[in-house]
Design goal:
Elements lengths: L2 H17 L3 H14 L4 H15 L2 H14 L4 H21 L2
Helix pairs in contact: 2-3, 3-4, 3-5, 4-5
Length: 98
């Protein structure tokens, strides 16, 4: 099985869980993938950050998006996506703080 297929399958499985509102299942799935696919850590941390953003667990979102930033060195296009998501989370944090 090639890496592209694996990434496609991972994305499909994750989308299915999130669309069903199973955030706990999506979190468990991504956490398991992190242990099994360390070479994909930037992408997996990005997806965890996006999941936590949607789930309104903003501190966790920021933490994982920062991990993705660190792991995305050398991939400028991906880094732009991660930073865009990180900025979005931080805007929500500012609005939610009393």
């Amino acid at each position: 099985m090639d890496a592209t297929f694996s990434l496609t399958r991972l994305s499909e499985d994750l989308s299915s869980l999130v669309e069903d509102g199973d955030f706990e299942g999506a979190e468990e799935f991504l956490s398991g993938c992190l242990g099994q696919h360390p070479a994909m850590s930037a992408y997996l941390h990005f997806q965890l950050g996006r999941l936590y953003h949607r789930w309104n667990k903003l501190s966790s979102a920021v933490q994982h998006l920062n991990y993705a930033v660190d792991a995305a060195v050398g991939n400028e296009l991906f880094l732009v996506q991660v930073l865009d998501e990180l900025n979005s989370v931080k805007k929500v944090q500012r609005v939610q703080r009393p």
